[in-house]
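I'll show a sample.
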Amino acid sequence: MTAAPADLLIDRPAMTDGAALWRLAKDSKTLDLNSSYSYLLWCRDFAGTSAVARGTDGEPVGFVTGYVRPEHPRTLLVWQVAVDSAYRGHGIAARLLDGLTARLATERGITGVETTITPGNTASERLFTSFAARHGAHLEREVLFAAELFPDGPHDPEVLYRIGPLTDFTAH
């Protein structure tokens, strides 16, 4: 039995969460899996721009990793989003994204969100399209990385989703 979304704690990741984030990404079967080392580093260096959803046992059941773009400090780039299969369909990814964005609007003044999505990743397309609609923000799409730019074999293009301005977070 999984916890209801209301029972989940949205929190910043700790270094000790790195292995769990790696497993969630691996089990998603849709994300590009990075090395386990990179998830440990992410939980150390980018915990302030990432979020985890914790079950009643305190273990991560979902995450959003991101960073503030160095040359565009009001833009959050969302790197990966994953939710354990037992918890999907409850709006946890949207809750994580909304919570992280609200926190960073307050702490860092972000007014925009970017992410890349491969064509056919319907869940991510819906997540970010509904995020833009929920917050009354403009959504632009363009190919950021064409398939031929990837050196490690066949890879779909990565389409940049640019969402903003986010005014509902900064108005409060």
Summary: Residues 114 and 162 are 5 Å apart (CA to CA).
